[in-house]
Amino acid sequence: MISGEGGAGSVRTPSHRGAPHRIALIGYGEVGQILAADLEAAGVRDVIVWDRLFASASSAPSRAAASANVRAASSMAEALKNRSLVISAVTAANCVSAAREAAGSMSPEAIYFDLNSVAPRTKRAAAEAIGAAGGRYVEAAVMSPLAPKRIGSPMLVGGPHAAAFEPLAREIGFTGIRVFDAALGKASAAKMCRSVMIKGLEALVTESLLAARRHGVERAVLESLRDLFPNEDWERIAAYMLSRSLQHGRRRAEEMREAAQAVADAGVEPVMSLACATRQDWAADHRPERAPAALGSLLDAVLASGAAQAETA
Q1: Which of 26, 133, 266, 301 is the most exposed place for a label (fewest CB within 10 A)?
Q2: Is 2 domain-assigned?
Q3: Are 160 and 131 in the same domain?
C-alpha cells in the first residue's frame, strides 16, 4: 500500500483515502489528454504533465495543454520532482527511452505506472531502468479501446508492485484494473497477442475494402460479412477501423512491431504482425486532408489520396 510518509514525494503504503496525490503524467497525446481530464474529474488536483513535443509551442500536445489549461512542465526533471506516482503514456517506440530519462529524476520509491503497448521484453527493459533508480515499476495492458470507459477501461496490471498499487489506482479512477500476474511481461504478452487480432482486423478491413471499392464490389463484401457476423454493423465497424488507422497509423505500426517482437519471442514467425505494421504505416501516409464519416466517401478519399501521391512520386 502507498502513502505519503515523511517528505512530500515519498510513498510507502497506500494510505488514507482522500490524501493528496502528487502525479506526473508523461506523454500528452490522445491517451494522456484523456487521463489528465479524468484524473481532474476524480478530484486529483496535483497533476503535472510533460511531453517532449512541448519544446514546440505549435505542436499538437502544446496546443492541447494550453486549451485544457493543464499544468505543463518545462522538462522531464521538473515534471518528476517530488512526484509519488509517474504515469507513462508515450508511444511504443519511446517506452524505454522515457523510462530511462525518468529514472534520473524520480523520487525514491515512487511508482512508475507504464501504460505503453509494447512487447514483454520492452517492458522488462523499462522496469530495469526504473528499478535501478529505486522506483517501483508497474506494467499495465489496456485491453479495450480507451474512449468508451476512458480511465476506467479494463486494464491488466503486473509486476511485483502491482497488487500494492491496485488500491491507489482505483482511488484515483482506474476502476477497471485487475492484477494479472506478479511476473513482469505477462500482462503485456496478453495485450500484444490481442493487438495481433485487433490491429490485424484494421489492416485487413483497410486492404479489403479499398480494393473492393476500386472494383465496385464493396456492397457485396459488406453483405457477406453480415452473413458471417449477423449481429454486427460492418459498415460502421469498417468506417471506424479505417478512420482510426488513418489517424493513428504511425502509433499503431509501432505497436505492431512490438507485437511482432512478442510473437517472435514465443517462437512463432510474426508474418501477419509485420504485414499489419506495414499496412498501418501505409494508412498514416495516405490520410486524406478531409476524412468523411461515411464509409464509401472515406474509401474514395483514401484512394484519391493514394492516386495523388503516386502522380507526384
Answers
A1: 266
A2: no
A3: yes
